[in-house]
Amino acid sequence: MSLTSSSATQIQITSVVAVLLCCVTVNTGCGPEQEPSASSTVQTDAQDQSTLDACRMRLEGVARRFRPDSLSAINDLTSSVGALNAWLVECAAQELKTLSVSEANLAYLNPAAQRSVSAPRFSVRDVIYVRDSLIVSRLAQAIVERSNSPHDLEFSQVLSLFRWVGNNISLEGTAAAGTSMGFLDTLLTGQGTVRSRVWLLAALLRQLQIDVVILLPNDAREDPEDDSEFLIAACVNDKLVLFDPLTWLPIPSADDDSVQINNPAGADYLATNDRWNLPQVRIVAETSALCPRMLVLQEQLPAKLSAILYEEISGGTSDIRPLIERLVSSAPEIILADRFEWWDWPDQQATAAMALDESQQRTRDQQMKSFEAPYNRDPLDLGTDFNEILSDPSLTSEQREALWQQKWKMEIAKIRELEKERDLKKLFGRPSDYLLKIRLEQVEGSSDRRIIQQLQRIRNACIDDAIRFTVPLSVDHTGQKSIPIPESLQKVNLAATGNSLYWTGLCQMDRSQSGTAVSAFRNYRRQYPDGKWFYPSLMNQALSEMAQGRYDAAFATLSEADHMANPERRRVVLMLERLQAAIERETPSAESIPDADAKVAPSEPPAVDQPSLDSPDSADDAV
Known about the structure:
The protein is α+β, with helices and mostly antiparallel strands and 623 residues long. 54% of the residues lie in helices and 7% in strands. The chain is built from 26 helices and twelve strands. It has helices at residues 2-30, 38-65, 71-75, 78-91, 93-97, 103-106, 111-118, 124-146, 153-168, 183-189, 194-207, 267-271, 292-300, 323-330, 345-354, 358-368, 386-390, 397-421, 424-428, 434-443, 449-461, 487-510, 514-527, 534-547, 551-561, 569-586; strands at residues 170-171, 191-192, 212-216, 231-236, 239-244, 249-250, 280-283, 340-342, 375-376, 430-431, 466-470, 480-484. Strands 6-5-4-3-7-8 form a six-stranded mixed sheet. Strands 1-2 form a two-stranded parallel sheet. The longest helix has 29 residues, at 2-30. The radius of gyration is 35 Å and the shape is globular. It starts with a helix and ends in a 37-residue tail after the last helix. Mean pLDDT is 83; it is low at 1-9, 19-31 and 590-620.
């Protein structure tokens, strides 16, 4: 009996202990998870934000490296590729995993392009495309900010960009047309083919999210070699506007009698023309624009370095409304989705520019050589600071003269030493790439007075044909000696001074300073009658004169440009016809001239919007 009672007591104690242990276990870890404390949540959010900020700063640093500051930097982008891929792996790999190229988009590309678009990393071609897009983005914004848009903002932007390309990218002559120039080369040199212009226009409009394609006749079997066999079509406010790439003028609507054609034709033009009804459509873009990695990069670029990098062609990769759908809706009875194909010329040109043969490389080097100017020569190291010694006020005139004599002798000895060593860099200077840096600012859209002043400085620095230094009169009665600059360097300087003067005129056009622009273009032809900008300067001078309302002067200038040697003669002929019609409309007929004896009410003189040649816009900008 006692044994049984003791066992029961032990069982009860054991049960109580078990219950207590279970309670302790539940309270310490077996129960529901506790909510994280507020302090730990804040710490996690701070870490995530810190990571995001670090990635943004890293991407901003990578993007800034894309801007070239020398000719070698234009060609060598290997380090930029590595830096961009490192950012992609560490900061954007997860976003890229969620995207893949749709079969609908891939269908427009050949197998090699498909592999390139589907690759998980950036290539050199991609980095070149990103660099060019960043430059063009700044240029497009600058052109738009300068343009006047009284009514239709988007339509005015398209016309402003179209005209800027025609004014700033002159057509190459036949001899230079065979060289494969990259996108940035075309922008910097200001020369290109008809197709180079189309490529640049499409890139500019993409930055404003305005669609542009090429239209071929409905009976064309393949991309024609003749550039007159296609049209440019831009989608503005869900309507098509058409441009002629050969004359680089809009296709005029029936009621447009303006000289530069302010009211382009649209879908009605295509519908009423048998060859252009239901045209073939070519998509103007590089394959890099279809890469999902470009969409990831586009969304994470900092605002001050933003650009449109990605294009959704047929849909399925992103939620962006496809380009084909946007264009079909602008002319549903004329533009058909099954008529779209890829225009592979930009890809071919970009690839060819990266793999020039020996002859093409020499031609390109010659075209780009002027950007190395001016050549900076280091001061002669004489081992004595004569400036400090000569500044001593206690020196007598005899002592000062003796010091000058000593300085001159040491300079002569040093120069003769350099001549014997044949060290041309020490004697004549090293390339500064200063013209390249100023020109890059200009093609990025800057046209302020500082650019004009810097171009003037480059011209002054390149104008000498010899190095001149002072010598004692006992050595030479003139007190001067000179060493002729080698002919190869003089050619570079001559090209740099001519380019600087012509680009000054373009800068003044951008600033709406028509009077000084006319003077700059005239001065260019006077100083360089055989220069490569002879006909482009005539074209832009005529446009500046028209901006002043001086139609007679513009007609005379364009008549001089009406020459077989002018690659843009078709444009000149068409503008002359329309300009002549405008002059005849403004000239009163004989019946409208009042009788000499009739009393005419006095009227106020017409307002002058643009400065005349006799009163330039600014003394600082005069050339």
